[in-house]
Amino acid sequence: TGNLVYIAGQIPKNEQGELMTGKVGLEKGISMEHAQEAAKLCGVNIIAQMNAATNGDLTKVKSVVKLEGFVNATEDFRDHPKVLNHASDLLVEVFGAEVGAHSRFA
Question: What is the C-alpha to C-alpha distance for residues 60 and 68, in angstroms, rounded to an integer?
Fold first, then answer.
């Protein structure tokens, strides 16, 4: 369409290239807070991709349509939405409720 950007495959890698890893839901796994920070970092990386696609002008983003997220978790873990809330909240914080609100698959 000439005005639609699809962004896929974002991982929780920080500016130093370090990847956040681990599985949430294990007794000795990562904490919910760690998983939420990983989701937020994915959100940061999504925004960076949007920034690149708009040549540094995020005001060109008129709507965030959908966010799909996968959480590395145990079979019995049921709080996937609580993890992904941090990525969703970041998009709304950066773009405002009107542009940043989106549907979500968790």
Answer: 22
**Mean pLDDT per 10-residue segment, the chain (106 residues):** 86 92 91 96 97 96 96 94 97 97 92
**DSSP conformational letter for 30:** B
Six-digit token string for 97: 């409720």
Domain range annotation of the chain: 32-105
Q: Which CATH architecture has domain 32-105?
A: 2-Layer Sandwich (3.30)
Question: What 3-state DSSP class applies to 40?
Answer: helix
Alpha-carbon gap, residue 52 to 47, rounded angstroms: 9
Q: How remote is the C-alpha of 36 from its chain's centroid?
A: 9
- Please give the Cα distance from 45 to 11 (Å, whole number): 8
